[in-house]
Amino acid sequence: MTRNLIAILRGVRPEEAVEIATTIAEAGITRIEVPLNSPDPLDSIARMAAALAGRAEIGAGTVLTEAEVDAVADAGGQFIVSPNCVPAVIRRTKARGLGSYPGVFTASECFAALDAGADALKLFPAEVLEPRGLKALRAVMPSGTLMLAVGGAGASNFGEWMAASADGFGLGSALYKAGRGASQVRRAAEDIVAAYDAASKGQ
Q: Which UniProt keywords apply (predicted)?
């Protein structure tokens, strides 16, 4: 089963990256992001992409510039996540053949991102927008637009967000925090997957 979940490993270190990523993939989350404000993120991305080829998609988050897109692509990353909407970054991402998930909050940002070629929209911070905000945006979005709730969406409210038409989620501190060991991450990932699957069946 392919789940529309992105594991956000902010603060992960290269020496632990493969073990943590493998644990998460085995639990059923197969899209994994390393934010670029983590220690040596490109090293972590390269290691994870090599070790999990064919088993998980590895990408980068907090990507702000075209040069960073190039660096991630060269390291073997497969998708780009940003906290903001910068059309030039989106276009560069697509030119390099990577998935593009820019951060948006307003209708103007949503349309600018889609016009630049974004594959999905990262609603951030979702906890401020709330499910009712997603419903309002969905009313004007083109049919088929993929919208991912990030920041405040998680196991306790997947159902509420799905009812408001969320297509997927990004999970950060609920899943991984710097210093958290693989066994803790596995338990958190399994709980998140179970909640996601249960919420999906209820829709």
A: Carbohydrate metabolism, Lyase
Active site residue 122: yes
Please give the torsion angle defined by the CA atoms of residues 132, 133, 136 and 141, in that order, rounded to the nearest 10 degrees: -130
User: Distance between CA 21 and CA 51 in Å, rounded?
Assistant: 9
Listed in sequence order, the DSSP H helices in the chain are 14-27, 41-51, 66-74, 87-95, 107-116, 126-138, 158-163, 182-201
Q: pTM of the full predicted structure?
A: 0.96
The domain defined by 5-201 folds into: TIM Barrel (3.20.20)
> Which residues fall within 8 angstroms of residue 89, CB to CB, at 6 or more apart?
63, 64, 65, 66, 68, 69, 80, 82, 102
What is d(CA 117, CA 62) in angstroms, rounded to the nearest whole number?
A: 18
Candidates 16, 57, 68, 122; catalytic one: 122
pLDDT, residue 202, reads 75
Q: Write down the catalytic residue from 16, 33, 57, 68.
A: 33
pLDDT of residue 99: 98
Tens-digit pLDDT profile for residues 42-92: 999 999 999 999 999 999 999 999 999 999 999 999 999 999 999 999 999
Do residues 6 and 168 touch, judged by C-beta distance below 8 A? yes
Question: Which sequence spans correspond to the domains of the chain?
Answer: 5-201
